[in-house]
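Case study: Class I SAM-dependent RNA methyltransferase.
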Amino acid sequence: MYQLLATSPMGLEAVVAKEVNDLGYETKTENGRILYEGDARAIVRSNLWLRTADRVKIVVGRFYATTFDQLFERTKELPWEEIIGPKGSFPVSGKSLKSKLFSVPDCQAIVKKAIVERLKKAHDIKGWIDESGALYKVEVSILKDEVLLTIDTSGAGLHKRGYRLAQGAAPMKETLAASLVRLSNWNGDTPFIDPFCGSGTIAIEAAMIAQNIAPGFNRDFASEEWEIIPEDMYEEERIKADSEALYDKEIDITASDIDPEMIRIAKINATEVGFGDLIKFKQLNVHDLKLEAEKGAIVGNPPYGERIGERKEVEAMYSYLGDLIKENPKWSLYIMTSYKEFEVLVGKKATKRRKLFNGYLECTYYQYWGER
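Here is what the predicted structure looks like once written out:
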């Protein structure tokens, strides 16, 4: 069994923890981290199925250290050889915050040296270690003198699903888009509209959720090359995921944007993942948006009006969204924006608010639940 760690953006720990729970693992949550225990198959399933986590890592060790000697000795005591093979390549990255050991390059060098000594002894290697094999990215993270040593199982971040061939100026991460859909509790049984679709990410993630398509289905992971993962396990789990997908489930998703170029880009991305005919794309000004069904969900990440001259336009859009949900009380509205006066313009207090970050920009996710 391994101690596993799914990393999470700030404010989304509960969403990631629920996904890990749904895979059948018990979790413990810390700031930006969801900890759980699992075997090799848990590593594979986590990488294939976690929509909202950034990465899946193995925790090799956790201890306090205030001197370089302590860091070296405690790192060397850990069973690195149980994960890293004799030819494994193990670059070390690091970060340190509010700790006595604040020089990150020194911490990285010491951890690297300690692992080298441990592996040479364990694998009976004389001379240099030949790092020509699989990649095991080690991270040393020190916070208030507590050292956390992990190995990344994912490779590229989990937001890299492989379908985004084109994007606009400020694309939203796929993991954040999936989180917005998860927080709306939309499951595909009612219409779904993103009126500010940009490169189509929210609509595509919604379609994947509704059809139960594993987000990691079409990409590779670092741990596929590892000796601790049985050779055919990723393939087995991909076949299983394919059999669990609801490809025939009919869903009603509309993605619109005022910019025809964004609609073109969104269509390319949706076609890449197989949703070219499933999602309805429209070039549309939000003021022309009409709700035809009795109930449904609007989920979006509109322009924030950060630039001078855009503010009035953005305020008018927000007011229009408020009018729409007042006229259609069974519809739910979920909007992420950095605009502080959003509720004033909508003319209604949100049912729930959640602080989130889009990149480095602090935003609020305003959630207005429709009447049941």
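For the exam, be able to explain this: The chain has a mean pLDDT of 94.
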